[in-house]
Amino acid sequence: GAVVSQHPSWVICKSGTSVKIECRSLDFQATTMFWYRQFPKQSLMLMATSNEGSKATYEQGVEKDKFLINHASLTLSTLTVTSAHPEDSSFYICSASHAGGYEQYFGPGTRLTVT
Amino acid sequence: QKEVEQDPGPLSVPEGAIVSLNCTYSNSAFQYFMWYRQYSRKGPELLMYTYSSGNKEDGRFTAQVDKSSKYISLFIRDSQPSDSATYLCAMSGAAGNKLTFGGGTRVLVKP
Question: Torsion over CA of B19, A46, A26 and A28, rounded to 10 degrees?
């Protein structure tokens, strides 16, 4: 149980365009979802925390107007990278947890390449 | 100084050897300690979870937490080539709170 999916698994977009990444909890209700970014050979860096029905809480240094997060239901959160630039190219991973749970269940990640 | 320090490796061991991994941290508020395994281009998967100080064993994996020293360890016995991956320690101050990750240690188990 506790499966999290992400779509797409990889995406290539042109500089200046926007791209949306979906994160779904398939068999549980995710009251909290987290979005991470991971550069090659580096660890996961938390971008934001979102609770269903509330505005996301962004980590220091993350532009909330550039990385739009929506957590409209207990099974779906989306991350939209607006006006993407090559430096936004990275591996984006989401995780989800249920109410009171200590464990974060991670998705398989989405590789974004901006040309 | 990072909140969580982890040797990046790579750590290369022969098959069957014991793999020893560790992390140090500076935030005394951390109470939940986890170890994740991440294969290349995949999301992390939870291996071990420990609350507060103590030891925990699960199959070939043993996790140890020493809060007085702010030091945690993961041991993998009878290592297999399939254990080759990056191992990330993570910790938080409360259940459900955001995790702070170490930088990860790349492990290579040679047949």
Answer: 90
- Cis amide linkage into residue A8, ω under 30° from 0: yes
Q: Specify which residues B48 forms β-bridges with.
A: B35
Within 8 A of A113 by CB-CB distance, chain B residues are: none
Give the model's confidence band at B6: pLDDT under 50 very low, under 70 low, under 90 confident, else very high: very high
Distance CA A74, CA A4 (A): 12
Interchain CB distance below 8 Å, B99 and A104: yes
DSSP-assigned beta bridge partners for residue A7: A22
pLDDT at residue A72 in the model:
82
Contact B103/A at CB under 8 A: yes
CB contact under 8 A, B104 and A34: no
Report the candidate in A68, A84, A66 with the shortest Cα–Cα distance to residue A15: A84
State how far the Cα of B73 lies from the Cα of B65, in Å rounded to an integer: 7
